[in-house]
Amino acid sequence: MATFPGRQRVARTEEMSRRISTRQAGLPAPRHRPALSLLLLCTLAITAAAATRPRYGGTLRIEIHASIETADPPQLGPGMPDLAPAFSITRWEAGRRAAFAADENAPGGRPFLDAVEVELARPPRDQAIDLDVGKAEMVEIPPSEARRQPAGRRTWVSQPVRVVLLDFGARVDDPRVREALALAVDRTAIFNVLLQRQGEISGALLPQWLSGYAFLFNAASDAARARELAAAVPAQARSLSIGVEDPALRPIAERIALNARDAGLAVSLVPQAGLADARLLEVRIAATDPARALAAIASTLGLPAPARTDSPDALYNAERALLDGFRVVPLFHLTDVYGVAARVKGGPGISPLGEWRMENVWLEGGRP
Amino acid sequence: MTFRTRLLVVFTLTVVASVGMVEWLVTRATGRAFERLENQRADFLVAQFQREFDRRGQEIVRAVKDVALSDAAVNVAISSDDSAFYNEASAMARAHGLGLLELVSGDGAIVSSAEWPVRFGYVEDWLTAPSGWKPGVAFLRREELPDGFTLALAAVETVNAGGRQLYVAGGQQLDQDFLTTLVLPAGMRVLLYRNLEPQFAPHLLAGAADTAADAAEFQPLIERVIRERRPRVATLGSGAAAETVHALPLTGIEDNLLAVLLISSSRRELVELENSLGRNGAWVAAGAILTGALMAAWATARVTRPVRRLAESAGQVAGGNWDVRVEVTSRDEVGQLAQAFNRMTHELVEQRQRLVQTERVAAWRELARRLAHELKNPLFPLQITVENMQRARESHPAEFDEVFREGSRTLLAELANLKQIIGRFSDFAKMPAPEMQPVNLNTLAAETMKLFEAQFAQARVTARAELAPELPSVSADPEQIARALRNLVLNAIDAMPEGGTLTVRTTPQGAGARLEISDSGKGLSQEECERLFTPYYTTKTHGTGLGLAIVQSVVSDHHGRVSVESQPGKGTTFRIDLG
User: Fold this and answer.
1) CA-to-CA distance for B211 and B67, rounded, in angstroms?
2) B83 and A CB contact within 8 Å
3) pLDDT in tens, B398-435
4) Cβ–Cβ gap B118/A197 under 8 Å
5) Element (H, E) at B264
6) For A33, A47, A278, B212, which has the most beta carbons within 10 A of its beta carbon?
7) What's the predicted TM-score (pTM) here?
């Protein structure tokens, strides 16, 4: 797990200077011929130190696939809201781009970057191209592309912080249908192929790294049992729709529909989750505290709020209670993966929860 | 119907029948020619489709082979981790212009599917089956897609690398887009029914402008081809909207019937041509019939003119004009007929003249015989009386005076008899022309009956008059009609020597009147009736035989008609009709 000491740029700069000074202080005494060599070494050392030294200036260009159409820039959630308070927004074009400028008076000091520009609604394929040709310094890498990255590509990867789950609506009132679908889903195939083994297979709401007990929740498929359950319900109940609003989840939903067909369930996919019998969505882990994270997930899904507890057993029971009845079926925990250009220094620019942390990032070629 | 009319009708019917037959033959021959042309077009289109089908198959084979030979396919084949390539087929399909492409591992599991990407891991048994597809050969296949089944023209190649095998199965859907690429002649269209469901489904008919309507129209033909698995040809629709449809079954590698190709050729041109031929034919036929009728009229007039003249001449001959002659205008049968007619009339005239002469001679002979007979009777007593008087003067002079007186009386009596006989002949010869005036036959009948009352009593004849009260007057000579009536009454009295009943009856006859005299005598035979009015013919032992001849002469001079009706044993009735 990455550790983040906080924004203490000044102290870190001083530390780096100290180290350089220490190195310089450790040099042998100059001689005549060796003096030239020493001079050369000093020059190289200074140059090397200058190259790794944080530099001010430059604009970090980030591309994301999400299209945020709100009139005002988002204030909550991962990504752009995390830039504050080091950066303040200077331009907002809904669904297209946003620009943030470094705040000279930010707590902890001015960031190295002068600005951050975020381009919205950029398809993953275009993001990869833009990163390759230098039009962007930071892009999202979807799971399907994670293993296709060129060798040496620098990535920032969060912990598994997005739980992909099936959320059944009230119309699917027969628990056998919900269980049949839960058992029909071949998570392993999806994980290996569609997710390219990025993240984790899970039957729990909280990821293993956060709760420590996620492995206790069954995530294995059982096609035979699924067929048995589906065959036991009336024919009209064997047809249901799944709403998928996020295009990135569409392949997973299609595979689920295929698995469901093998089990005897007729699943159709619709783009509007509100009209569907169930929905496939991802919920972001909002806190590093398991109890708070579980409560946030329950709140997001409209589930009963779990009791506040610090005990892992109690937390496990609370989560088990939430998942009883298969009203919610967790499938995977996904990581946030960003491809980063080589000229981006410092970082990582994201936290374990995937929050953007650009205060300690600078660009090669910026002002020294 | 006259001969000319009949001839005209026959000629006209012949012309109509001939023209109709020619019209029918032309229409039928043209229709057959167009049917042959239509079949040739359909055969051409079928061959064109087959070529296009083969060409597409070769394209697909080539594209699939290119995919199999590509480095990307080799990479997939040699990779131990299939999961990294699940999207590979889509890119390959796009790059090689394939609508369908699947990369399948040696064990039959799908590595990557362009048409159904999430179907990775599923097994395609048909690829690993020992029989079925052949490399380098395109075939039809029923392919499953996320939204159902489709019909595909597919090909398969294998990649063997690093000891591993990879199947490359690619193809194109046979759908509307495929059909639109076919180049079709005007008036033809191609439809494809994809036999992907157990029952006929209209949405599986590709290439139809109006799917619902066309599906309903083609359904019976499609179902028949599916059932019989043989090509069929049918004509659908009617009139100008009719189509000739060639339906061909298309089978897959497992000999399963996967589609029915429908090559439809509009019959509009044929129908329009037939209509045009019909219209033009009708005009031509009408013209021909009209011309034929005119020609027939002219011909019949020309043919029947001599016949008509013959008929008129024959009518004149029948009317008594035996001198009529027909102009001979030709040497044909009609001319020969005219010559024969002329010969016939000539011979008739000669025969009549001979007959008249013969009859005249016979009449004179009869007259001489009658005169001789009538005159001989009184002459014989005259001769005897004169001889008695001579003998008495010579032998008995004393008795001569007495004999002379008696002989004188006898001579005078016989001379009077002779005078009477001569008078009768003179009367018959001197029959005067009638002096016409209105005459009431009832009055004449009553007067005559009264005149004969004494004789009726003497002959024991009961006279009865049945006179119509509303009898119209007729124009007649009362003296001559009375004379005729008296003759008939005397005849009737003579016919009843044993007595009987005589009835005089008058009845109106239109504007004229009828007078009947009936007796209850012994009647006459048929032969006697026919000869009754011949002069000097009589059935009586006395009389000159001129009575009824006079009656007939009088009635004839009055332009009337006298007839007799009699049956032996039932009496005789004479009728006189006067206008």
Assistant:
1) 36
2) yes
3) 888 888 888 888 888 888 888 877 877 777 676 778 88
4) no
5) strand B257-266
6) A278
7) 0.60
Give the pairing type, strands B500-509 and B512-519.
Answer: antiparallel
Q: How is the beta sheet containing B139-145 ordered, strand by strand?
A: B110-113, B100-105, B164-173, B148-161, B139-145
Contact criterion met (CB below 8 Å) for A306 and A294 = yes
Give me the pLDDT at residue A11, please.
39
**A92, A130 in Cβ contact below 8 A?**
no
User: Is the Cα torsion angle B262, B268, B274, B278 positive or negative in sign?
Assistant: positive
SS3 B477: coil
Taking contacts as CB-CB distances below 8 angstroms, the residues of chain B near A144 are 87
Question: Are B120 and A254 inside 8 Å of each other by CB?
Answer: no
Query: Of the candidates A192, A197, A258, which has its C-beta nearest B119's C-beta?
Result: A258
Q: How many CA atoms lie within 13 A of B476 on its CB side?
A: 31
* Cα-based angle B485, B486, B488 (whole degrees, multiple of 5): 65
- Chain A contact for B301 (CB, 8 A cutoff): no
Q: Which residue do the tokens 């003296």 mark?
A: B479
Residue B378 has, within 13 A of its CA and on its CB side, a CA count of 16
- CA separation for the pair A107, B249 (Å, rounded): 79
pLDDT 10s digits, A96-117: 999 999 998 888 888 999 999 9
Question: Exposed/middle/buried for B183, CB within 10 Å: 0-12, 13-18, 19+?
Answer: exposed
- Please write down the HEC assignment for all residues of B42-61: HHHHHHHHHHHHHHHHHHHH
Residue B368 CA neighbour count, 13 Å, CB half: 6
- Looking from the CA of B465 toward its CB, the CA atoms found within 13 Å total 15
Q: Does A148 touch chain B (CB under 8 A)?
A: yes
Give the HSE-up count for residue A340: Cα atoms under 13 Å, Cβ half-sphere. 23
Q: Which of A192, A197, A251 sits opposite B117 (nearest CB)?
A: A251
Res. B264: pLDDT tops 50: yes
- pLDDT value at residue B300: 80
In tens, the pLDDT along B497-552 reads 889 999 999 999 888 999 999 999 988 888 888 777 776 677 766 666 777 878 88
With CB atoms and an 8 Å threshold, state whether B121 touches A148: no
Tell me the two tokens of residue A31: 């001689």
The Cα A208–Cα A217 span in angstroms is 10
Distances in whole angstroms, Cα of residue A304 to Cα of each of A21, A218, A315, A324? 59, 21, 14, 12
Non-local CB neighbours of B257 within 8 Å, separated by 6+ positions: B195, B226, B229, B249, B250, B251
Q: Tell how far CA B278 is from the center of its chain.
A: 24
ipTM above 0.85 for this complex: no
Task: Summarize the confidence of residues A4-28 as an average pLDDT.
Answer: 38
Place of tokens 């999202």: A140
User: How confident is residue B209, by pLDDT bands cut at 50, 70 and 90?
Assistant: low
Which DSSP string corresponds to B136-164? T--EEEEEEETTEEEEEEEEEEEEEETTE
Task: Find how far residue A145's CA is from the centre of its chain.
Answer: 14
Distance CA B500, CA B489 (A): 13
CB of A189 within 8 Å of any CB in chain B?
yes
Return d(Cα B350, Cα B353) in angstroms, integer.
5
Tens-place pLDDT, residues A332-350: 999 999 999 998 998 789 9
Is residue A13 scored above 90 in pLDDT?
no
Tokens describing residue A4 = 């983040």
Give the one of A147, A189, A197 whose C-beta lies nearest to B121's C-beta. Answer: A189
Dmax (CA) for chain B in angstroms is 199
d(CA B332, CA A265): 103
Tokens 């050729």 locate to B265
